[in-house]
Amino acid sequence: MPPRPHPTARQKRLGIELRKLRERAGMSGSTVAAFLGGERAQVSHLESGRYGVSEERVRRIAAHCSATDKHLIDALASMAEERGKGWWTDYRKVLPLGFLDQAELEHHAVYMRAIQMLNIPGLFQTAEYARELIASGVSDLPAADIDARVAHRIQRREIFDRPSPPEFEAFIHEAALRMRYGPTEVMRAQLAFLHEVSRWPSVTIRIIPFDAQITGSVHSMLYVGASIPQLDTVQIDSAFGGGYLDAEAQLAKYRALLDSVEAISLDADESGEFIQHIAQGM
C-alpha cells in the first residue's frame, strides 16, 4: 500500500506519539523496524502518519518500548482503530486540508475551551454571518467555494446534536460582538443566535468586556481536550491559516492563559444579558 500523500492532523499526531514512545525507550527507528519485520522507512512512514497502523501493532510497539502508561496506550490504540471516514472527507479536494483537520479535531474532542477576540467562534456562526466573514477575508474566492466553506462550517455544529456532546466554553471579547462584518440585520441575527447558543446545555459563553484588564499575550485560540491530557491539542487561530501545538510545556501555557481570561470575564448569566444589550442597540 502506498503512503498517504496527505495524512490528517490526527493521523500525524498518532505517529508523533509513537515516535515519542520509541525515543523515550532510547531506540532507533531501525531497531523498531527490525522488531516489526520491516525496513526503517516503514517506521518513518508510521511516525509521520503516512502509513496506517492497527491497534495490535500499536500495543506491540508500546510493549517493545517498555511503555507502562496504560491510559496512553489505550488511547493511542483507540486512535489507530478509527477506520471510518467522517463527513468532512466529502470536502476533500473541495476545501483546503486544514478545514478537514478542524472538523476532525472537534469531532473527537472531549471538551473545548476557546478565546475569540475579533469574531464569533466558527461553530456558533449563522450562515449569513459566516458568508460575510469568509467573503470579506478572501475577496477573489469563487462563489461555489464560499458556499462550500459556509456549508462545512455549519455542518461542524453537528457535534452538539449528540446524546453526549462535548463541553464547550468560549471566551469572546466584546470587540467580536461589535465588529460589523455585514449589514445590521445579519449582525443582529448573529447575536440573537449566539444568545440562543449560550443556553445550550453543553455550551458556556463568557464575554470579555472592553473594560477588563487584559494582557498583550491574549489571542484567539482553541484548546481541545482529549480522552487523556497527554493528547490535548491547541489550535492557534489566524486569518491566513492555523497551527497545532501539543508539547506539554505549550499545553500548560495555554491552560494558564485560559484561566487568566476566565478571571476577567463576565459569568454566563451576565454574558447572556450583555449579548442581548448589544443586539438591541444595533
Tell me about this structure.
By secondary structure, the chain is of the alpha/beta class. Helices cover 49% and strands 11% of the residues. It has helices spanning 9-24, 29-36, 40-48, 55-64, 70-80, 97-107, 127-137, 143-155, 174-178, 184-197, 248-264, 268-280, and strands at residues 111-116, 167-173, 203-208, 221-225, 233-236, 243-245.
Features:
282 residues; alpha/beta; 6 strands; 49% helix; 11% strand; elongated
How would you concisely characterize the structure shown here?
By secondary structure, the protein is α/β, with parallel strands linked by helices. It contains twelve helices and six strands.
Class per helix and strand makeup: alpha/beta
What's the gyration radius in Å?
A: 21 Å
Helical amount: 40-55%
Strand order of the largest sheet: 3-2-1-4-5-6
Report the total helices: 12
Total strand segments: 6
Q: What order do the SSEs take from the amino end to the carboxyl end, as H and E?
A: HHHHHHEHHEHHEEEEHH
| Gap from first CA to last CA | 58 Å
List unreliable stretches of 5+ residues. none
Write the topology of this structure.
Elements: H1 9-24, H2 29-36, H3 40-48, H4 55-64, H5 70-80, H6 97-107, E1 111-116, H7 127-137, H8 143-155, E2 167-173, H9 174-178, H10 184-197, E3 203-208, E4 221-225, E5 233-236, E6 243-245, H11 248-264, H12 268-280
Helix pairs in contact: 1-3, 2-3, 4-5, 7-8, 10-12
